[in-house]
Amino acid sequence: MRHDFGAESSRPASLLCTLRTHQSPSEWQHSLPACLLGVDRAGLTPAGFHQEVSPSHLRFPLFQVFPSAIFTVPTLTFSVLYCFFVIAHDRRRILHCNVTRHPNSALVVQQLREAFPYDSAPVYLIFDRGASFNEEVIDTVKSFGVQPKRISFRSPWQNSVAERWVGSCRHDLLDHVIVLNQRHLKRLLNAYILYYHDDRTHLALAKGTPAGREPEKNPNIGCRVVSMPRLGGLHHRYGLAA
Known about the structure:
Elements: H1 5-9, H2 13-16, H3 34-37, E1 65-74, E2 80-87, E3 94-100, H4 105-115, E4 124-127, H5 135-143, E5 147-150, H6 160-172, H7 182-198, E6 225-230, E7 235-240
Helix pairs in contact: 4-5
């Protein structure tokens, strides 16, 4: 297969930039874009902003759908760790996340019990066709009063919300660190989930966060911008000084 690397450099700079600004430089009112500050600026419509529309083929409310998945993470000693998580479809909230060395159906059942305590189970639970999601898991899910929805063969797009979170976790965190062991990975994921819930903006949520971050407002146009490090300085949250 031929790869034309020269054609990559001929693309516009906006396509090669990985900064999640959601605006062109000509539309910035201050030194930093509104999507990083979370500032409510009346009359400003970011270029390239597309509001997500709920698919018409969905016949049930999104807040009743909880996708789940397991993904792998290599360590410094070349062992493989497995991360299980459950995410809410409506606000992209991570409801439960844990790390193990040996995934099996008994582990998945226990994690589902911890994810949905006190009759808090959703109506639908989406999962892939991994060996860990066997008949024992399906029977347990049904005992919760949940309808299991297994995706089709070779169709990860049917579990797109979970797959998207795995991609974001790798791009924002795991591609920049070397995991030492199971305890280290669990600590990193807990810190990333806090950042993901409170600080990371989403176009699908109208530039909001899963936890509902409020836009910052300051009538003084000359106010100072402060930078708050997240994940040990790997990412930052920007706010307006009082």
